[in-house]
Amino acid sequence: MEETLPAEIAKIKLKNPTMLAAGILGMTAKSLLRVARAGAGAIVTKSVGLNPRAGYPNPTIVQVKCGLINAIGLPNPGIGIFTEEIEEYKAVEDNVPLIVSVYGFSSEEFAEVASLAVKAGADAVELNVSCPHVEKTGMEIGQDPEMLHEIVRKVKNKIKKPVIVKLTPNVSDITIYAEKAERAGADAITAINTVKAMKIDIKTAKPVLANKFGGLSGPAIKPIAVRCVYEIFEIVKIPVIGCGGISNWKDALEFIMAGASAIQIGTAIAFKDIGIFKNITKGIKLYMEKKGYRSIKEIVGQAHKK
Ligand SMILES: Cc1cc2nc3c(=O)[nH]c(=O)nc-3n(C[C@H](O)[C@H](O)[C@H](O)COP(=O)(O)O)c2cc1C
């Protein structure tokens, strides 16, 4: 029997608070459907742009203690082709919302990609203004409050579906960006994308990744992500989605207590398997039964209570 544990993000109803994070198993309708059927409450696709992108040459991923560093370079077929995957998913799956992650090199591009994704059936979009390894998009935009504001406004003006903004932790004060996104009309915030990082091979004395720098994910970044969610929750009224290093129900609960209304899972899928969505839902449910909680909402932000 499937565990249900209702949650809600930006008026999108989820059967449980677990979501697939962008970039992991998120490029084809087949893999997205596999995750949906494995028990995820919602699915976020790989980030997609206006034009096809090849990404970076290998090596693009390296394993480090407690995590991965990746600099894949946002490979994707472009929204023109990707709409077919969105349509294929939506034709057979209506119970697990599909959120399309979009990026662009200008606010117009963001709005155009978002609009095409929604026309193809996306239930919401997540703006990737936080990728740490591609120039002139991602983190470079997410570190510029005015640019961030313009992008969110343009996308909001163009589509009717909810707009989620995914923030980078690679700033000195993440609350400035959360507040900007909210003022520009964002419906929710995802925190966080990967932390800019590097590994050097001491045999060759060279960086391991072809791109030199990449983004660190996995358990190594969990305390940073929890801190970001906690800080953002104190500043904005829109819901926060927690992401970064979650690999079991206890991790998920930490994020919820910090202020997350739902959580996303990425790297743990590579280290474990897609049974993780059901396991986390089950673990949270058992915890709630034991403690007498009736809904997730009662736990969201508990760590802020005096
Ligand atoms: C291989 C890989 C690819 C990723 N691709 C994307 C992407 O396309 N768009 C995006 O917003 N985040 C991307 N991310 C970041 C994840 O969605 C997530 O924010 C980050 O990995 C932290 O969560 P985790 O520790 O559970 O993986 C990627 C992460 C990894 C490891």
Total strands: 16
CATH class: Alpha Beta
Q: Give me the strand/helix succession.
A: EEEHEEEHEHEHHEHEEEEEHEHEHH
| Uncertain residue ranges | none
Q: Given the structure, what is the number of helices?
A: 10
Distance between the amino and carboxyl termini? 38 Å
What does the model show?
By secondary structure, the protein is an alpha/beta fold. It has one domain: Aldolase class I (TIM Barrel, Alpha-Beta Barrel), CATH 3.20.20.70. Helix 2 runs parallel beside helix 3 (107-120) and helix 6 crosses helix 7 (222-235). The strands form 4 sheets. The protein has an 8-stranded parallel beta barrel, surrounded by 8 helices. Strands 5-6-14-11 form a 4-stranded antiparallel sheet, with no helix packed on it. The protein starts with 6 loop residues before the first strand and ends in a 15-residue tail after the last helix. Helix content is 36%, strand content 20%. The structure holds flavin mononucleotide. Flavin mononucleotide binds at residues 21-24, 46-47, 68, 70, 72, 74, 101, 128, 131, 166, 193-194, 217-218, 221, 243-246, 265-268.
What are the key terms here?
single chain, 306 residues, alpha/beta, TIM Barrel, eight-stranded parallel beta barrel, four-stranded antiparallel β-sheet, 10 helices, 36% helix, 20% strand, globular, binds flavin mononucleotide
Topology (elements, then pairings):
Layout: E1 7-9, E2 12-14, E3 18-20, H1 29-37, E4 42-44, E5 61-64, E6 67-70, H2 79-92, E7 98-102, H3 107-120, E8 124-128, H4 139-142, H5 145-158, E9 163-167, H6 174-183, E10 188-191, E11 195-198, E12 200-201, E13 206-207, E14 213-217, H7 222-235, E15 240-243, H8 249-258, E16 260-265, H9 267-271, H10 276-291
Parallel strand pairs: 3-4, 3-16, 4-7, 7-8, 8-9, 9-10, 10-15, 15-16
Antiparallel strand pairs: 1-2, 5-6, 6-14, 11-14, 12-13
Bound molecules: flavin mononucleotide (FMN).
